[in-house]
Amino acid sequence: MLYLLVQVNESIKCVISERIVSIESTVNKFCDLFNAVIAEQYNNREVQVFVRREKSESWREVDNGLNSDLKILEVFGFLQQTFISSMSN
To answer: Residue 68 CB: number of other CB atoms within 10 A?
Structure first.
């Protein structure tokens, strides 16, 4: 089981503030994590994924976004994620 800090933003507006989320090991993509955190109202929007180890670090964009494997969190020790949705559908 992964324990993560997750936040969701729409452009510069915070939609879901930072919260602790636990995810079963059967969840293996960032889209699975995103769907577990946010309602379906954002499913049709373009979403960028960013990760970091701690608040003092800069956010790092995940190249493959929602389609990337959550395994990178464990491999690189990232515990914080933010999802940024564009405002246009």
So the answer is: 17
The model's pLDDT over 28-67, given as tens digits with 9 standing for 90+, comes to 888 888 888 876 666 667 889 999 999 899 999 999 888 9
Count other Cβ atoms within 10 Å, centred on residue 15.
17
Domain range annotation of the chain: 2-85
Class of domain 2-85: alpha beta
**What residues are paired with 10 via a beta bridge?**
13, 85
User: Do the Cβ atoms of 13 and 84 come closer than 8 Å?
Assistant: no
- Whole-number Å distance between alpha carbons of 7 and 47: 12
pLDDT at 39: 61
Enumerate the β-bridge partners of residue 14: 9
Whether pTM > 0.90 for this model: the answer is: no
Give bridge partners of residue 28 from the DSSP assignment: none
